[in-house]
Amino acid sequence: MAFAWKAAGLTYNRYLAVAARVVRRSLKEDKRLQAERRGEMDLRFAKWENGKQGENKSLGEANASAMADAAGQEAK
Amino acid sequence: MSAFRLSRVALRARPTKFQNALQRRGYAEAISDKIKLSLALPHQTIYKSTDVVQVNIPAESGDMGILANHVPSIEQLKPGLIEIIEESGGSKQFFLSGGFAVVQPDSKLSINAVEGYALEDFSDEAVKSQISEASKIAGGSGSEQDIAEAKIELEVLESLQAAMK
């Protein structure tokens, strides 16, 4: 496989997000504070079943575990 | 007598016709030697269809310089420095976090990236401290995903450090 991060189940979208995050953190203080707000993401979702709201989960954490699962599946 | 006058007129007419042929624009002048560059981030437009002479980009397939009339192509960018040689002869450099460069058939180049800053906006200490932090994680016993992310960070930071020297 061409990219090591692909083998770990990471998506290209995640790769870009990580690369952008580290670029933002490398900026000088004034620009960094402004830029880092762009990296924040707080989305939550819940699955509704039989008319009842399920557990409220963070989208970021759900994505991370899905990527770990995908890597585990590929290894099998 | 009238036939003789007619030939005189024809003789005089010829040189002007010849001049016209010389003034006609040829293919070489009609084509511009500039490339229209659009460099866009999600939150900012740095270049908007601006005529530039050359753009050097760090593509996954290797570093390349793009001039006018480049063959159309799509290149994935590595985190790295792009250099833009402007019409005035000066050049500008930006560090991009990664994205895509699309060369369109009519001498147009679109570059999309998530983050892009000039080199003077980066802090030396921030890069150094992040390198030591990321190498700790990359060599540690975290999850496969954490190690992979730390390795991505290292790739970006090392490219940035090399560019800043």
Automatic annotation (TrEMBL), chain A:
<dbReference type="GO" id="GO:0042776">
    <property type="term" value="P:proton motive force-driven mitochondrial ATP synthesis"/>
</dbReference>
<dbReference type="Pfam" id="PF04627">
    <property type="entry name" value="ATP-synt_Eps"/>
</dbReference>
<dbReference type="InterPro" id="IPR036742">
    <property type="entry name" value="ATP_synth_F1_esu_sf_mt"/>
</dbReference>
<feature type="region of interest" description="Disordered">
    <location>
        <begin position="53"/>
        <end position="76"/>
    </location>
</feature>
<dbReference type="GO" id="GO:0005743">
    <property type="term" value="C:mitochondrial inner membrane"/>
</dbReference>
<protein>
    <recommendedName>
        <fullName>Mitochondrial ATP synthase epsilon chain domain-containing protein</fullName>
    </recommendedName>
</protein>
<dbReference type="GO" id="GO:0045259">
    <property type="term" value="C:proton-transporting ATP synthase complex"/>
</dbReference>
<dbReference type="InterPro" id="IPR006721">
    <property type="entry name" value="ATP_synth_F1_esu_mt"/>
</dbReference>
<comment type="similarity">
    <text>Belongs to the eukaryotic ATPase epsilon family.</text>
</comment>
<dbReference type="GO" id="GO:0046933">
    <property type="term" value="F:proton-transporting ATP synthase activity, rotational mechanism"/>
</dbReference>
Automatic annotation (TrEMBL), chain B:
<keyword id="KW-0406">Ion transport</keyword>
<dbReference type="InterPro" id="IPR036771">
    <property type="entry name" value="ATPsynth_dsu/esu_N"/>
</dbReference>
<keyword id="KW-0375">Hydrogen ion transport</keyword>
<keyword id="KW-0472">Membrane</keyword>
<keyword id="KW-0066">ATP synthesis</keyword>
<dbReference type="InterPro" id="IPR020546">
    <property type="entry name" value="ATP_synth_F1_dsu/esu_N"/>
</dbReference>
<feature type="domain" description="ATP synthase F1 complex delta/epsilon subunit N-terminal">
    <location>
        <begin position="36"/>
        <end position="106"/>
    </location>
</feature>
<feature type="domain" description="F1F0-ATP synthase subunit delta C-terminal">
    <location>
        <begin position="122"/>
        <end position="162"/>
    </location>
</feature>
<dbReference type="GO" id="GO:0005743">
    <property type="term" value="C:mitochondrial inner membrane"/>
</dbReference>
<keyword id="KW-0813">Transport</keyword>
<keyword id="KW-0139">CF(1)</keyword>
<dbReference type="GO" id="GO:0046933">
    <property type="term" value="F:proton-transporting ATP synthase activity, rotational mechanism"/>
</dbReference>
<keyword id="KW-0999">Mitochondrion inner membrane</keyword>
<comment type="similarity">
    <text>Belongs to the ATPase epsilon chain family.</text>
</comment>
<dbReference type="InterPro" id="IPR048938">
    <property type="entry name" value="ATPD_C_fung"/>
</dbReference>
<dbReference type="GO" id="GO:0045259">
    <property type="term" value="C:proton-transporting ATP synthase complex"/>
</dbReference>
<keyword id="KW-0809">Transit peptide</keyword>
<protein>
    <recommendedName>
        <fullName>ATP synthase subunit delta, mitochondrial</fullName>
    </recommendedName>
</protein>
<dbReference type="InterPro" id="IPR001469">
    <property type="entry name" value="ATP_synth_F1_dsu/esu"/>
</dbReference>
<dbReference type="Pfam" id="PF21334">
    <property type="entry name" value="ATPD_C_fung"/>
</dbReference>
<dbReference type="Pfam" id="PF02823">
    <property type="entry name" value="ATP-synt_DE_N"/>
</dbReference>
<keyword id="KW-0496">Mitochondrion</keyword>
